[in-house]
Amino acid sequence: MYEVCIVGLGYIGLPTLLMLGSYIEGVVGYDLNETIITSLNAGKLHFEEEGLIDVYNSAIKNGTCFTQSIPLAKTYIVAVPTPYDEKTKKIDAKFVINAVVDILTHAGNDTTIVIESTISPGTIDKVIYPIVQKMGFERNKNVFFAHAPERIIPGNMIFELKHNSRTIGVDDVEVGKKIKELYGSFCDGDIIITDIKSAEMSKVVENTFRDINIAFANELAKICSEDDLDVYEIIKIANHHPRVNILSPGPGVGGHCISVDPWFLVGYYPKLTKLIRAARDVNSEMPKFILKRILEIMKQNNIDSFSEVGLYGITYKENVDDTRESPTLQLLKFMDQKDCSRIKLYDPYVDELKGYEISQKDTFYKSVKLVVILVSHNELEQDLDVLKSKIVFDTKNVLNGENVYKI
Ligand code: SAJ
Asked: Could you tell me how far CA 134 lies from the centroid of its own chain?
């Protein structure tokens, strides 16, 4: 029997598995997706992340393995996606439910299941546990639950896995101690133990806080743009106040966390979430504002075709290859099909994207007059010379010059 099985080897499950596997023996990763398991067994990682290959190598040395059929383990850590229902704004917990049912069907009694996936407050009590009960299990007797929401940021995952503090929600102090010891094998940060619902709530609150702060920055950007003020200068000055810390405006909020988790609160507390809802709306409308600015800049520079416009950056943020909910894709959705097919797209991390043609870097720069920077990948530093000869709309505040427009 394995010590720990990680269920779901995506953006969170895989780094967690490999980190744990570098520190303890008896760790196994399980995923339904055959391609993922085959590639991991062949030594290939299915997404890029700094330092991931190093922890892969040390986990493998330590005996970590991957499987497509659910193995027997003492503890299971579930890291599967938790989308939300577009209509109701409530969590769609089907993947977590399937994982828990799958685990209990195979593992039987005395299993500990740690949910790492972000879930709306009350999901374990109200959604998962009733299903588990119907299967004949009794909580805290023959099945034990914990919620250990992840906190790692893509681009710095390995460092943050080791150094960030963690929250562990449990029903039972003894289970809390056991899970704390497990996470403490690799995590140097504080590990705070609380109840399950508080852990569920605190995770969603963290991402919602960031969404609201970014929305404030984005709203300021619009105000400043209206009055010809430099929003970055204003935020820089305000942030010198010891109790002010405004984040940066940008083309929108992407990824599968910050743009999703606030809905878990809106969906369940619709009458109490005016601010959270407004922040979501401000951030979701940002790509539309960017499109309006692109059209203004095109007009000012006598550019009348989108074929002379290029979007630099397709991923949801810099130096990662993840395009989920990316502001660029949100912007393309606001454009009509004809304009969309004319506009040029380039991203050093993206070679292909369903429904769109991605240019090679040389062709991209040769064919466009206006470059819109939507993601400030470090790779951009290599292009500073060519960018001097273009009109640039820099939505990330990384360039300066007479040819550069800002949000
Ligand atoms: N963004 C801005 N302005 C900023 C910061 C970010 O517009 O000042 C945009 C980014 O460009 C991106 C989006 O917001 O499109 C989200 O990026 P992010 O770097 O803020 O966050 P994520 O989604 O990569 O990771 C977040 C983190 N949560 C918090 O910082 C509270 C991470 O710690 C979580 O583990 C992760 O969500 C998650 O999985 O929940």
From this structure: 33
Please give the Cα distance from 92 to 256 (Å, whole number): 14
Question: If you take atom 32 of ligand 1, which residue's CA is the nearest one?
Answer: 153
> What distances in angstroms separate CA 58 from CA 24, 52, 290, 362, one per listed residue?
11, 10, 44, 39
CA separation for the pair 146, 75 (Å, rounded)? 10
Sequence-distant (≥ 6) Cβ neighbours of residue 120 within 8 angstroms: 90, 91, 200, 204, 264, 265, 267, 268
Backbone φ and ψ of 54, nearest 5°? -65, -45
Instruction: Note the pLDDT tens digit of each residue in 66-88.
Output: 999 999 999 999 999 999 888 99
pTM for this one? 0.95
Cα within 13 Å of Cα(32), Cβ side:
9
Q: Is the CB of 397 under 6 A from ligand 1?
A: no
DSSP E strands in 306-343: the ranges are 309-312
5: annotated active-site residue: no
Separation of alpha carbons 112 and 116, rounded Å: 13
The tokens for 347 are 């991203």
* 150 CB within 6 A, ligand 1: yes
257 is catalytic: yes
pLDDT tens sequence across 159-182: 999 999 999 999 999 999 999 999
Distance CA(95)–CA(299), nearest Å, equals 47
235 lines ligand 1 (CB under 6 A): no
Tokens in use for 208?
A: 């919602």
Ligand 1: residue whose CA is nearest its atom 1: 253
